[in-house]
Specification:
about 230 residues, mainly alpha, about 0% strand, membrane, DedA_domain, VTT domain-containing protein
């Protein structure tokens, strides 16, 4: 099941990029930053993988689609732009309805009350600069836009910090995707041999991570019911 979910999400990301190019990266990262559970850790590595001609060709063959050839840095930059656009949605929700609106409608995208509370504590403790820092941290990077909207943080500063923090995150993930794609293509590489040797270990780790994700999302539903 985990493999099938991963395959569906991968196909969705790649078909979107194939149809829309860089705009597809913007849209996908916008969806992620609007707190819809579509991980940037999947989107940007694929965008980075498409910056290498051989990897792009291999993915095109696997998914039977003519995928574009990206520039690594440009892919990271447009990904950061997508983060800004999606974060504007979360900011607007926080500014318009406050915490009650987030708690009321967050269930529809499985936002956990605990995640909201955590982002609020971080914002109160560190102030506006946490917007920049949080963009480099998994999970909290998405939800930090809510408290910024609640306190009506200056929009220019909000988007400036969001962009500056999102660039290294997006470029870094894209670079990882490019490097992983290159290694997977090289039959003689150490990584390829290790992947074949430890397939079972990798599957167990992936299942454990998927289980943790599902459990946290179910906890979000229970928190709204209590």
């Amino acid at each position: 099941m985990v493999k099938s979910i991963f395959a569906v999400l991968s196909a969705f990301c790649l078909y979107t990029m194939g149809a829309l190019g860089y705009l597809g990266v913007v849209i996908l990262m916008g969806i992620e930053s609007a707190c819809v559970p579509l991980p940037s850790e999947l989107i940007m590595p694929y965008a980075g993988a498409l910056s290498h001609p051989d990897v792009r060709a291999e993915l095109s063959n696997q998914f039977h689609i003519n995928l574009p050839l990206f520039n690594l840095i440009l892919a990271g930059l447009v990904g950061a732009i997508g983060c800004n656009l999606g974060s504007e949605v979360a900011y607007w929700v926080g500014a318009s309805g406050g915490r009650r609106a987030i708690e009321k409608y967050g269930r529809y995208v499985l936002i956990d009350k605990h995640e909201i509370a955590l982002s609020e504590r971080w914002f109160r403790r560190w102030g506006e600069v946490i917007i920049l820092v949080a963009r480099l941290l998994p999970i909290i990077r998405t939800f930090i836009a809510f408290p910024a909207g609640v306190v009506k943080m200056n929009r220019f500063k909000f988007h400036l910090y969001t962009f500056l923090g999102s660039v290294p995150w997006c470029v870094g993930l894209a670079w990882c995707g490019q490097e992983l794609g290159i290694h997977l293509l090289d039959e003689r590489s150490f990584l390829r041999r290790m992947l074949h040797k430890f397939d079972l270990v990798i599957v167990v780790i992936c299942i454990a991570l998927a289980g943790w994700f599902v459990r946290s999302r179910l906890r979000a539903l229970r928190s709204y019911q209590s």
